[in-house]
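Re: weekly structure request thread

Next one in the queue (263 aa):
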Amino acid sequence: MNTAVSKDGTTIAYDQHGSGPALILVDGALCSRAQGPMPDLAEQLADRFTVYNYDRRGRGESGDTSDYEVDREIEDLAAVIEAAGGSACVYGTSSGAALVLRALAAGVAIERAVVFEPPFVVDDSRKQIPRSWVADLEALEPGPAIKYFFTKGIGLPGFVVTMMKLMPAWKPMRAIAHTLPYDARLLGENCFGDPLDATQWAAIDVPVLVVNGGKSPAWMKTSTRALAAAVPGAEHTEVPGQNHVIKATAIAPVIAGYSTRPR
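Done, posted below.
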């Protein structure tokens, strides 16, 4: 394990794999550098990049503070990039993709970015997320918070969440469930069915690739296309046969191809 120190003094833990240009991986909700898609993805990419897989604030072996602000997570990512040499390509998935977009708009030293399915909602084709969901998540204990997130936030049936409680991943998810409000805050006003406000990304001036899975729901495909249109100069692609839980073997070639493509 390696560590970087964020601007507010919080320690951010990361693993480093492989050799080559720096590539930072940014997780979505309820994942850490030890749990979720990033360990497999780091392995897939380590023959072409020096891959940095880090625990977002409040997860795994990274520190936290009691007064969460989105800007602190942007500073955490900036600290990992500084540890990687001062600039890097970045891949973010789900709420991690929303964090990458915020970091880009803030001018963090990202060379280019691939963002996979930030869970924005830009129409009324799915059951809407409650506008009170940040406060709702903050008020809940870990188990109920996870259920709320998956049912109200993602739209999974309740019985699916009940089945999750029997799986080995449930205990690690409970351990970081207190960070679910962080993910909700990162999405901001982009998840309540309204058209995207492109001004929030107007400052982005580096290449961005927006990606969705071919088997993802229609609302997600609509939002990724809307995002690609809203981010200056962004491109869009779809990975056939994949959904929000995209396989490392499917997304790794997309990340590698875009990150190494001549500008």
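The chain is about 40% helix and 15% strand. The CA atoms of residues 142 and 177 lie 5 Å apart.
Next request, please.
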